[in-house]
Design goal:
Blueprint: E1 6-10, H1 15-31, E2 36-41, E3 52-55, E4 61-63, H2 79-94, E5 101-107, H3 109-112, H4 118-126, E6 131-135, H5 140-147, E7 152-154, H6 158-168
Parallel strand pairs: 1-6, 1-7, 2-5, 5-6
Antiparallel strand pairs: 2-3, 3-4
Length: 169
């Protein structure tokens, strides 16, 4: 049975480790001539820093968080900017030939609740393009429900990502 075309890197307590491993892996693929599309999250120095996504194809930045003021505990996701960023994934799906891999920065609370970039995730899978994301373990039950148990769950190491990618080839 072929390996699933969907994988999530399980995010350790220190966010930058998963992001750094993902970026190193994507650079390897691009150096090998693979077309990689999608969104990656810029490393944040502190938790209150804005969440910025980078379009892998164009370098365009999307600040998807918004300042709600000191002491706010509400969700600071900027839905307008998230909608703009979603166009990156839809554009990637329309490319011919299709990219070798599509990356989504996170499967998070919005996707767990059926919102955010969940539809773009489903569309990527429907197109048969391998998809890679980062997942906080607290969303693991939602991820497993979304993926119907067909996704790989990877530790954040280059070796794990390379093995998954080789199983895709």
């Amino acid at each position: 049975m072929p390996a699933p075309r969907l994988a999530a890197i399980l995010q350790p307590p220190v966010h930058s480790r998963a992001d750094a491993v993902l970026l190193a892996f994507l650079q390897e693929l691009q150096t090998q001539g693979h077309t990689v599309r999608g969104l990656v999250q810029q490393e944040r120095a502190q938790a209150h820093d804005p969440v910025i996504l980078h379009d892998l194809a164009t370098g365009r930045r999307f600040t998807i968080s918004q300042s709600l003021g000191a002491g706010s505990t509400a969700c600071n996701l900027n839905p307008h900017m998230l909608a703009e960023a979603s166009a990156v994934l839809r554009t990637a799906l329309a490319e011919l030939p299709p990219p070798a891999l599509i990356v989504l920065n996170r499967f998070g609370p919005q996707e767990a609740e059926g919102h955010g970039l969940r539809q773009e995730l489903a569309d990527t899978l429907a197109h048969g393009i391998p998809l890679l994301t980062i997942l906080n373990p607290r969303w693991l039950p939602h991820w497993r429900q979304f993926s119907d148990g067909m996704a790989c769950e990877l530790i954040p190491t280059l070796d794990a990502l390379r093995q998954w990618w080789q199983s895709e080839a």
